């Protein structure tokens, strides 16, 4: 039971969002020595990582958008135009991102989310393992979270 009266608001507020994020990070750092040790280091920042494939006309044939944080690569989007699917382009984009994350940013692992109608089997063929399955997210669709340890070379 709430013992005080609060005014509840629901509008989008970027300033409050940033304040909330900052306070959550402070709370997390106070509770976790690992996160506390990351504060103020280069590993604490999310750094964008993008890989693009352009066809002979310079049009977008495929791409990967993600970021690195601590020692992880997070793949947010991977897409290949229908005309280029089955050519190995998706595998090449993913391998390039993993290589950059490993060699330039000292990443040791990667993670991503995909839906059942997208590419969970594709990622498994690339060495990813399913670590989470969420049925009906959204309703009628299953979401998968997959991870992969990146080999040290």
Fold and architecture overview:
By secondary structure, this protein is an alpha+beta fold. It is 31% helix and 31% strand. It contains 4 helices and 6 strands, in the order H-H-E-E-E-H-E-H-E-E. A 6-stranded mixed sheet has the order 1-2-3-4-6-5. The longest helix is centred in the first third of the chain and has 18 residues, at 14-31. The protein is globular and about 60 Å long.
String of helices and strands: HHEEEHEHEE
- Indicate the radius of gyration in whole angstroms: 19 Å
Amino-to-carboxy terminus distance = 55 Å
Indicate the mean pLDDT.
Answer: 94
Helical/strand content category: alpha+beta
As laid out across the biggest beta sheet, the strand order is 1-2-3-4-6-5
Number of DSSP-assigned strands: 6
Taking pLDDT < 50 over at least 5 consecutive residues as the criterion, the unreliable ranges are none
What shape does the CA trace take?
A: globular
List the total number of helices: 4
Q: How much helical structure, as a percent, in the residues?
A: 25-40%
* Major β-sheet profile: 6 strands, mixed
- Kindly estimate the percentage of residues that lie in beta strands according to DSSP: 25-35%
Keywords:
153 residues, alpha+beta, six-stranded mixed β-sheet, 6 strands, globular
Topology of this protein?
Blueprint: H1 14-31, H2 33-38, E1 47-54, E2 60-69, E3 72-80, H3 89-105, E4 109-115, H4 120-125, E5 129-134, E6 143-149
Parallel strand pairs: 3-4
Antiparallel strand pairs: 1-2, 2-3, 4-6, 5-6
